[in-house]
Amino acid sequence: MLDIKNLKPQYVTNEDGEQTAVIIPIGPFRELLEDIEDLAAVAERREEPTISHEEVIAQLKRDGLLPD
User: Fold this and answer.
1) Chain-wide mean pLDDT for the chain?
2) Helices (H), 16-68
3) Which of 10, 26, 45, 52 has its CA 20 to 30 A from that of 63?
4) Residue 58 CB: number of other CB atoms within 10 A?
5) Cβ contacts of residue 22 below 8 Å, gap of 6+?
6) Is the pLDDT reported for residue 45 higher than 80?
């Protein structure tokens, strides 16, 4: 997850001195987009049923993806 303190944003202001836009380096911008996508995926799956870690391991073993 991106550390917001390291963004070093630059602000664009209008003639009244109001901030109207922000400029950040492309690397942190891409990290922010990835974080937003991850959060959206979590939100979309919030209502899905969960299974225990033990059940995941058992399923992987049954499917031959983990050794017995």
Assistant:
1) 93
2) 26-44, 53-62
3) 45
4) 13
5) 9, 10, 11, 12
6) yes
